[in-house]
Specification:
CATH class of the largest domain: Alpha Beta
Distance between the termini: 56 Å
Structural class: alpha/beta
Number of domains: 4
Shape: elongated
Number of helices: 21
CATH architecture of the largest domain: 3-Layer(aba) Sandwich
CATH superfamily of the largest domain: P-loop containing nucleotide triphosphate hydrolases
Radius of gyration: 32 Å
Strand content: 5-15%
Number of strands: 14
Length: 555
């Protein structure tokens, strides 16, 4: 059995067989054989790189397993990832099976693979057998005899401690797994482990407690993105004031979503069936703000050729949202105060009051208390509108919401422009986290829309850093390969984390939410050490470094 099938494929074309990469029928020369091997390895590595765009573990492990099976011609396969999570009594497991019946997959998962997987996970070494039927380690198992299991290869996934295994079985006429197959599968399994750890880290981050769960039971907030405690506090205030007939002042930096929160308040109030009318006070000149707000009677001024209804009238039985209320003129402030006190107002040029049933919600990114001290805003008006204040947090105060917001804006752009759905690469999400967004959610929304359009125009399947930050990077005179861009980004990210944590590897790994073993593997692969980072004119003697200038793992 050990030599069965050797040379069986010589002289015939195997390119049409399922699960095989395309090969020539028979190389004409030795150079052709080398070219075929290089071409096959290139195709395999390109497919492996494409796996890096996956954003969820389930499709990732399914395609990773298919790739590994193609690499060695296996007809059946099983892949398992195992993650120990703090505070959980049992590990989290992800599995995928290919080419197996339901019974076979169950047997692999619960019987044969248990013995092989246990051995592989215990010592981190690949287990290979040319025939499980003849191997004394496995031949007595009922499932081995029942399914006639012969050639098996089980390799650990990951570098350092194994985080999973890949189980490959049955090569048909190709016979047992050869040394070249074993070496290639082991190498691919290491690369897949790096990508899997990144996805598991993301999975852990997405399991961060959703602080908005309870308050969302009280609100209709399906389209409102966010799970952070900061946004939960704002939603709690909205849930409190929405059913009440009180004036609300929404504060927060520019671009945080104050208008969206005001609309959410309206939609959850008894006035939800009435109109929601918005007026941006900063966008109107002083000469028009009163007319826009209160309306104007026929002939009240030179341009009033007809009666002009104001925003208050338009919002009758609904909600009037006054954005940037701090920009109102002194005259408009006085009239607005009168309306809030009496619920009556006077359109320009009219001496008869008009009664209106309107709830006022105001918003500002300015410090109105300071404006009161500077006599730019009426103190009595501030007291009137600030019955219940609601503050919207900046994006920097809710970083855990950034991935969800980025995906939401990407999906919105795809739907608006008729694009196929695009993913956001892990490198892009990391770059978004590391970037500053002074314009908050509004700036992120515009950036993601532009990035989505660029990605769709370039025909790629995911939004990358190059699409989000097209002007970033010192070298723009040549195309940078995927490998170069990824390597450079990882190097910058790791160097920044190490600098911020005093070159303490453990703390740097924790700040990046990756395993310490993975951190060491990346440092070695990228050639990062503290001595190299100092430059030729640097002197030794710095604290926190290990022996030989290597990063330290503890302080």
């Amino acid at each position: 059995m050990a030599t069965r099938g050797e040379g069986a494929d010589r002289g015939r074309d195997t390119s049409s067989e399922p699960g095989r990469f395309s090969t020539r029928a028979e190389p004409a020369t030795a150079n052709d054989a080398v070219d075929d091997k290089v071409r096959q390895e290139r195709d395999l590595y390109l497919a492996l790189l494409q796996l890096g765009a996956k954003q969820a573990i389930e499709p990732f492990i399914r395609e990773a397993l298919q790739l590994l099976m193609q690499a060695c011609g296996a007809r059946k396969g099983y892949l398992e990832l195992i993650e120990e999570r703090e505070g959980e009594s049992r590990p989290v497991m992800w599995t995928a099976a290919e080419g197996c019946s339901a019974d076979e997959a169950q047997s692999i998962a619960s019987a044969v693979s248990r013995g092989i997987v246990a051995a592989t996970m215990a010592d981190g070494k690949t287990v290979v057998t040319s025939s499980a039927l003849l191997d004394p380690r496995f031949r007595d198992r009922g499932s081995v005899r029942r399914h006639n299991i012969e050639a098996v290869l089980c390799a650990p996934i990951g570098q350092g401690p194994a985080i999973g295994v890949v189980y490959l079985q049955d090569r048909g006429d190709l016979g047992p797994f050869l040394n070249a197959d074993i070496a290639q599968i082991e190498l691919f399994a290491q690369h897949i482990g790096v990508l899997a750890e990144r996805l598991m880290a993301r999975s852990r981050s997405e399991l961060v407690h959703d602080y908005t769960t309870d308050v969302r039971k009280q609100l209709r907030a399906e389209g409102f993105v966010g799970r952070s405690k900061a946004i939960a506090d704002a939603l709690t205030q909205i849930a409190l004031v929405a059913p009440l007939e009180v004036t609300v002042l929404i504060t927060g930096p520019s671009g945080t979503g104050k208008t969206q929160l005001a609309r959410l308040l309206h939609d959850n109030s008894p006035r939800a069936r009435g109109p929601f009318v918005e007026l941006n006070c900063a966008a109107m000149p002083d000469s028009l703000i009163e007319s826009e707000l209160f309306g104007a009677a026929l002939g009240s001024h030179s341009t009033a050729a007809r009666r002009v209804p104001g925003k208050i009238e338009a919002a009758d039985h609904g909600t009037l949202f006054l954005d940037e209320i701090g920009e109102l003129s002194a005259t408009a402030q006085a009239k607005l105060l009168q309306f809030l006190q009496s619920r009556q107002y006077y359109p320009l040029g009219q001496n008869q009051p008009v009664l209106a049933n309107v709830r006022v919600v105001a918003a500002t990114n300015a410090d109105l208390a300071e404006a009161v001290r500077d006599r730019r805003f009426r103190e009595d008006l501030l007291y009137r509108i600030q019955v219940i204040p609601v503050r919207v947090p900046s994006l920097a105060e809710r970083p855990e919401d950034i991935p969800d917001l980025a995906r939401f804006f990407c999906d919105q752009a795809c739907k608006a422009h008729g694009f196929s759905r695009l993913e956001i690469s892990a490198a892009t999400l990391q770059a978004i986290h590391l970037s500053e967004w002074p314009g908050n959610v509004r700036q992120l929304a515009h950036a993601m829309q532009a990035a989505t359009i660029r990605a769709a125009g370039q025909g790629v399947t995911s939004v990358g850093v190059a699409q989000l930050f097209p002007d970033r990077g010192p070298e723009r005179d040549r195309e940078v390969t995927f490998q170069e861009a990824t390597r450079e980004f990882q190097k910058r990210l790791l160097m920044q984390a190490l600098d911020q944590n005093g070159w303490n590897v453990l703390e740097a790994a924790q700040s990046l939410d990756i395993a310490r073993s993975h951190m060491y593997s990346l440092l070695k692969a990228l050639g990062i050490n503290r001595r190299a980072s100092r430059g030729p004119d640097s002197r030794g003697g710095g604290s926190g470094g290990g022996s030989g200038g290597e990063p330290s793992s503890s302080r």
